Amino acid sequence: MNKHSFSSNKQGFSTNKQGFSSNKQSFPADKQSFSTDKDGQKVWGDVLSALKVSVSASCFKTWFSGSYVMDSKPLGDKKVLVVGVKSGFLKEQIEKRYMTFIDETLRSNNYGDFGVVFVVSQRENGHAADSAAPLFSGTAPSYISTNRGADALNSGHIFANFMVGPSNNIAHLAAVQVAANLGKSYNPLVLWGPTGVGKTHLMHAIGNEVLTKYENAKVLYVTSEKFTNDYLESLANHTQSGFRNKYRSVHLLLFDDVQFLAGKESTQDEFFHTFNELVISGRQVVVVSDKHPRELGKLKDRLVSRFLGGMCADVGYPDIEMKTAIVASKCRERGIVLADDVVNFIATECRGGARELEGVLTNVLAQMRLSGQLSTDSLKNYIGKQGVNTTVSQGQIVEAVTKHFKTRYSDLKGSSRRAGIVWARQVAMYLMRNLLQLPYEAIGDFFGGRDHSTVMHSIVKVEGEYDNKPTIRDDILRIKGLLGV
After folding, report:
1. Which of 248, 246, 254 is nearest to 187 (CA)?
2. How far is it, in rounded angstroms, from Cα 309 to Cα 293?
3. How many other C-beta atoms are found inside a 10 Å radius of the C-beta of residue 50?
4. Mean pLDDT throughout 280-293?
5. Both ends of the chain: CA-CA distance in Å?
6. Same domain for 366 and 381?
7. Is-above-0.70 flag for pTM?
8. Is 237 helix (H, G, I), strand (E, B) or coil?
9. What are the backbone dihedrals phi and psi of residue 227, each rounded to the nearest 5 degrees, phi first?
């Protein structure tokens, strides 16, 4: 795919903040040194410190690891710092991408009379360079390294290997459109749903697609924990400006597990202002949560309001057909063949999402390697040990609920609005979600085609009553007793 460059006019991105510059500087000749190596090392050390908090760890290591001060020379009324780098490619890319940022850092640290030029040089440390393996092969190094840091994208999470079905098709479509039109289609994009259903896969796929499409894209993936730790560290070290530059100068911010910001008021305030600056300047924000923004307790109203101002797309548990396709796809990726009855059994009995399916598949393969065979009985025994319910059905749940509340099966599936029947129906919806992990749409279809928002409201209401009222908790435990779970 051909890569493009970001246009500050069309995309709403300011390349000055990124430190991209095509102006190249040349090495000044025939001048005498004016200062000691110690002076130059301090200046360059301050520049590196600013860079380290403003770019990702992988970018810093790629472009600036191994750079060192060679000399300091006067040039008219300026002082020129000569910095050595390992290759011509490094020199070219640093001058293109980061010279503006370096100049701004020098001025902000009272080194306004300094300039920096880069030359190709290998530091002499008594070890010969390995000439058999060039540092670069002629192409820019990948954003994703083999040993990924916590803030790196997973290169394996792309749109091409994301399984699309009824439970995630809207979220997938929104993610594809966001990657194609940063800051224009849906901003912010909020992906929400239970754990293990592919939310993070979609988020990483957006980042990988943008990095493939735009050669100078600045993409930052961060968890709420990492954001919080960085913020607290900036307060302790008085480096708030560097922290803000790091998070507010990106083209795409991918923020995972936003629910863990709940209760952290000062961190929420910082994220709110970061969010505002990015969105107002046309940058894209993608947020992942385990619940709908309205359900996130202890999250400030103004932050929830910003989330609701964008696109909120839920990612639910896959249905049987989609689970079967996921298991089959994972088998193809690993180059293995499982009998159709084994694939169908795993898909039918596992109530979780793609992550749980992959975990069960991994253990199935391990069992096959150890015993050389796999029977449906042994597989059923294993899945039962994982806490997956292999006996309860939707019909049995409704039957247990009607027995406990002394209502009729037809009433729960019908349109009656009597308070007692409505409550029994809501409890049945809650149990289907809790025990079977069914998508909201599937539960709604079972109850006469009710909208998924109605199902979601019912489940949230029962969850609230369950937490606050012992009598309700006792009712639900008695129903579970009838089901034998």
Report:
1. 254
2. 11
3. 21
4. 91
5. 52
6. yes
7. no
8. helix
9. -60, -45
